[in-house]
Design brief:
By secondary structure, this protein is mainly beta. It folds into two domains: 1-158, lipopolysaccharide transport protein A fold (Sandwich), CATH 2.60.450; 162-299, lipopolysaccharide transport protein A fold (Sandwich), CATH 2.60.450. The protein has helices at 257-262, 291-298, and strands at 3-7, 12-13, 26-27, 35-39, 43-46, 51-62, 65-78, 84-98, 103-112, 117-121, 125-129, 132-136, 139-143, 148-158, 163-173, 190-202, 207-216, 221-232, 235-245, 250-254, 272-274. It has a six-stranded antiparallel beta barrel with strand order 9-10-13-14-12-11. Strands 2-3 form a two-stranded antiparallel sheet.
């Protein structure tokens, strides 16, 4: 028989970035509601260690937020008023955190309520939203107070028009701007993505590779540095620093970041380009004929 436990505390998971879109908030719309925990193999209450352990298809629900795993552990403490307060939740085995529109999954997860930090580990960790998907082979972290999300281990964030891959992706979220118009970034929107190690940026028109990079969502400008290569069809270019305007569809390549700032050549990486010739049409059999034969055919 499925075991049920009701804990009178708020469940709040703030998750990582929605693939260039708005930030996610796995936060219950009803934070004052108790958490209902169910499990197939029973729920253990360790009063000495102050924790609840739910085993076997364990599920914690508060409002429209659901957390499922093979095992869920809630660590709690008693407040001065004598109430029960959960300060950490551990999830192990086939972990899924889901809200109405977003789903994150991995092998294990920890949420620290005091630090407001969520860590999901696995190979892979995935985060799916209506606008895109983020994957990582090691972990995805979200630091709510700092408004920073990190995806590590062959990390990739993609939406309908862009795809960023790197060993590590870090997303920074926008702060609230008093009096900002509707076209401005809202609080919680991703304003900047920083990529480190084996960076690949793919747009509808070209592919850029480098050692490091960043993408500013508000301006649409991406900057790639290190051993940079740009590929568009059969055309290729190499340099030390690239500025890509994803809104205008233009790219500029420099020998280094310093050259880009001063617009003057330096002694760094030399820019190279390989422009493929336009393929020529294959001649038809009639075009192969000699001029004399063509004249005879005209007569």
């Amino acid at each position: 028989m499925k075991q049920i436990l009701v804990i009178g505390v708020a469940l709040s998971f703030a998750a990582p970035f929605a693939a260039f879109g708005q930030s996610l908030s796995f936060t219950s719309k009803d934070p004052n509601k108790p958490i209902q925990v169910t499990a197939d193999q029973g729920i253990e209450w360790q009063q000495t260690d102050k924790r609840f352990i739910a085993r076997g298809n364990a599920k914690a629900t508060q409002g429209d937020i659901n957390v499922t795993a093979d095992e869920l552990t809630a660590h709690y403490r008693e407040t001065k008023s004598g109430a029960t307060e959960v300060y950490r939740v551990d999830a192990i085995g086939r972990v899924t955190i889901a809200s109405k529109d977003e789903t994150a999954s991995g092998a294990a997860a920890v949420y620290d309520f005091d630090k407001e930090v969520l860590v999901i580990e696995g190979s892979p960790v995935t985060l799916s939203t209506p606008t895109g998907k983020v994957t990582a082979q090691q972990a995805i972290q979200y630091w709510s107070k700092e408004k920073v999300a990190v995806a590590e281990g062959d990390a990739e964030a993609q939406d309908e028009t862009r795809d960023i891959k790197a060993d590590k992706l870090t997303a920074f979220f926008a702060e609230a701007k008093p009096g900002a118009d509707k076209s401005s970034m809202r609080q919680g929107d991703i304003r900047l993505v920083v990529a480190n190690g084996n960076v690949l940026l793919r747009t509808e028109k070209e592919t850029a590779r480098g050692d490091r990079g960043e993408y500013n969502r508000e301006t649409g400008i991406a900057k790639i540095e290190g051993k940079v290569s740009l590929t568009q069809g059969q055309n290729q270019a190499q340099g030390g620093f690239a500025v890509i305007d994803t809104k205008a569809g233009t790219s500029r390549l420099f020998g280094s970041a310093a050259e880009a700032k001063t617009s003057s050549p330096g002694n760094n990486t030399r820019v190279k380009a390989l422009i493929a010739p336009k393929p020529q049409a294959t001649p038809t059999p009639s075009q192969w004929a000699s001029p004399a034969k063509k004249d005879a055919e005209k007569r």
